[in-house]
Amino acid sequence: MKEPENNIGNNSIEKDRDSNSRSEKEARRKKFKKISAALKLCLLLIIVVAIPAYIFFFQIDFLQEFSSLKDIENFFMQYRHQSMLIYFGLQILQIVICIIPGQTMQFAAGYIFHFWIGFMIAATGAFIGTIITYYLARILGRDAMHMIFGEAKINDMLHKINSKKGVAIVFLIYLIPGIPKDLCTYAAGLSEMKIKPFLILSMVGRMPGMIGSLLMGQQVHIGGYTSAAIIASCFIVMFVLGIFFRSKVTDFLDGIYVKLSKMM
After folding, report:
1. Alpha carbons 28 and 65: distance in angstroms, whole number
2. What are residue 66's phi and psi, to 5 degrees?
3. How far apart are CA 39 and CA 199, in angstroms?
4. Can you tell me the distance from the alpha carbon of 86 to that of 93, in angstroms, rounded to the nearest whole number?
């Protein structure tokens, strides 16, 4: 007659163990969330406050060295052996925290390194910088992006990227010179768009402006001002044609995106 009592006692002990195990797991989960939140906050403060503040207060002379094309050339000539590595780092940094205009950097690369070397460095830096930015937004989360860009801007960009015409919108943002790309890159990390299609769209969109800037920089360096003007004119014509035929471009890009999504 004692066996039922033993079974009841054993069941009670097992339930207590399960309850304690669940409590421990919940406690660990809460602790992990707190640590994760603290690390995200630190990373956000480094990006938003620490790096810009350090550059502005302690490296102001460094920024002034990029005030003109001649100053940029002199800077890289001072560090001739490390110049490619420095430019590569600046290209990544320009995408992640956007302190230097991209077209200016690429024009300077064409001027200093000429087209092919400048293209390889600029394209590789842009590729890596875009990946870092995309996953940085995913790690930090929506609240952090609201703090950096504002809730309304992030929500508006997310709505555009997640819409049926999101592929065309992303492509055109990167294609058209002068439009800030940083908001789109960070918003993409929070969107439904996967990294592979986004990388392809953003890199292909960057290419015309990047190639044009590099070629113009090279032509200016060798004194080919007429060639530089012709290149600039060609890209302006291509841009205008793209605006007029934007509907066909949008449909074409939507088809490409569907194929890319199936590859994932």
Report:
1. 50
2. -110, 25
3. 27
4. 10
pTM of the model: 0.70
Rounded Cα gap, residues 92 and 71, in angstroms:
21
Structure tokens at 62: 């460094």
Measured between alpha carbons, how far is 21 from 259 in angstroms, rounded to an integer?
46
Query: If you ran DSSP here, which 8-state letter would residue 177 be given?
Result: T
CB distance 90 to 197 below 8 Å? no
Where do the structural domains in the chain lie, given as residue ranges? 1-58, 90-263
CA 76, distance to chain mean position in Å, is 25
CA-nearest of 135, 149, 136, 197 to 171 is 197
CB 209 within 8 A of CB 173: no
Distance CA 108, CA 32 (A): 45
Tokens encoding 253: 């890009």
CB hemisphere CA count around 17 (13 angstroms): 6
Contact 156, 188 (CB under 8 A): no
CA distances from 210 to 15, 122, 185, 205, 232 (A): 65, 8, 17, 9, 12
Q: How would you write the pLDDT of the chain (264 residues) with one tens digit per residue?
A: 545 555 555 555 565 566 666 667 776 776 666 676 667 667 666 666 666 666 666 666 666 666 666 677 777 777 767 888 888 888 888 888 766 666 777 888 888 888 888 899 999 999 999 999 999 888 888 887 887 788 888 888 898 888 877 888 888 888 876 677 888 888 999 998 999 989 998 999 888 888 888 888 888 878 777 877 887 777 777 767 766 766 666 666 666 656 655 654
